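Suppose a colleague, Dr. K., hands you the sequence of a protein chain of 299 amino acids and asks what its three-dimensional shape might be. Before reaching for any lab equipment, you can write down a predicted structure in token form. Begin with the sequence itself:
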Amino acid sequence: MMDDRASIGVAPPPRHVPLLIRAGTIFGNPLSLFGCVFFGFGMVFFWVFVLNSDFTSWLDFRGELETAQGQLTACEKASMSEGGGKHSRGTPIFAHHYRFTAGSDQQYEGISYAKGARYETGSAVTVEYPEGKPEISRIKGLRVRPFDAGPMLVVIFPLVGLGVMVPGLLMGHKANRLLATGMLGLGRLKSKEATNMKVNDRTVYKLTFEYEAHDGATYEVVAKTSNTENLTDDEYEGLLYDPYRPSYAVMMDSLPGSPKIDGLGHIRSGHPLRDLAALLLPAVVFVGHGIAALVLLTG
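The predicted structure, expressed as tokens, is then:
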């Protein structure tokens, strides 16, 4: 096996790994892709529901509250409703603008929300606020955000997306590190086992390869994929392993974008367009939500 490996040229480490390949290996694996998509969609619900949820009242209005008489200056229908379904619009939410005086005759303003209830402009309202903090207030019985705390549960969606994406990013980091500093080896298929997972209606297989490292010892590396053809078309398959920890390895043909080693021993992208597409998705997700955060949190 060692003689066969020696016949394959590869530049000595540290090798230059082009940015496009790094992006492909980090963001192009299934975990990163799925996690990024799930995170992106989940954050849409986060901006719509969580930031409009009354999840701080339990903290702001705990303890002793002071009250003051105020006046309703305006009432308008909010751009959102609560409940509803396929054949109904849900209950409208109304925003109530009010003004009141507290402390040393200083005037304060605020907005409180009610589901399905609309007060008349000019009517008197009772305002409550934490003791000594009239700048934090609400109309008694109403809430300070359009929704109650229930929609906070949607935060689980972007968290699940992150939980799936992070292992994928770590896998990509491992691959890039081995592309830059790993030693080339040749693995021989030892076993092929079907798993309970499927990707695009194709069964994901667990492929175990055995290889001999430079220290003369034999190690194993596992690759899980639904596209087994690339990893089973030759008797020996190329892999990269950590020279200081030979058990830390990755199969070349299992990497997203299928990076190749050219005739000069340099790392080249096997599918540049696929690597570019893998970079565009997280760019759209994170730049888009970054702009949303800037607008919503500072606007």
